[in-house]
Amino acid sequence: MADKVAKRTSGELSETAQRYDRLRKNIPLIQKPNALVLTSGILGAFPKEVAVILWMVRKFDTFNEDNDPWHEHDFGAFEYKGENIFWKIDDHGGYEGYELVLTVMLASEY
């Protein structure tokens, strides 16, 4: 925990935040051992606009104390055409062959 506090006060990104940011910056080229998951809500609501939503996830940089209290850059939220969109990164630690999984969903699916 002290490490997280030190990173927070110095303005440096934690190793975890850097890793998660790299994953997002690789959209749409994420591949195993990492994965990108789009929920049925996203695919159903915006079938022709997935590229725009993924671009918004990739470019997201509005991290603050409310949405990123541990400074890990593992969650983001934004509005698109009246819908609240969430994205979340989970570390699966190699379970079933996956390391990091980035899920993009409607807020109502969370």
Describe the structure.
There is one protein chain. This protein has 110 residues and is α+β, with helices and mostly antiparallel strands. It has one domain (2-109). It contains four helices and four strands. The protein has helices at 2-10, 15-25, 40-45, 50-59, and strands at 35-38, 75-80, 83-91, 100-106. A four-stranded mixed β-sheet has the order 1-4-3-2.
Concise structural overview:
This protein has helices spanning 2-10, 15-25, 40-45, 50-59, and strands at residues 35-38, 75-80, 83-91, 100-106. With 110 residues, it is α+β, with helices and mostly antiparallel strands.
Distinctive features:
110 residues; 4 strands; disordered N terminus; globular; alpha+beta; four-stranded mixed beta sheet
Number of discrete domains: 1
Helix amount: 25-40%
Approximate shape: globular
Biggest sheet strand line-up: 1-4-3-2
In quaternary terms, these chains amount to single chain
Order of helices and strands: HHEHHEEE
Range of strand content: 15-25%
Poorly predicted runs are 1-9
Report mean pLDDT, rounded to a whole number: 91
Total DSSP E strands? 4
What is the radius of gyration? 14 Å
**Largest sheet features:** 4 strands, mixed
**What structural class do helix, strand and pairing data support?**
alpha+beta
- What is the count of DSSP helices, taking H or I runs of 4+ residues? 4
Distance between the termini: 27 Å
Chart the SSEs and their pairings:
Blueprint: H1 2-10, H2 15-25, E1 35-38, H3 40-45, H4 50-59, E2 75-80, E3 83-91, E4 100-106
Parallel strand pairs: 1-4
Antiparallel strand pairs: 2-3, 3-4
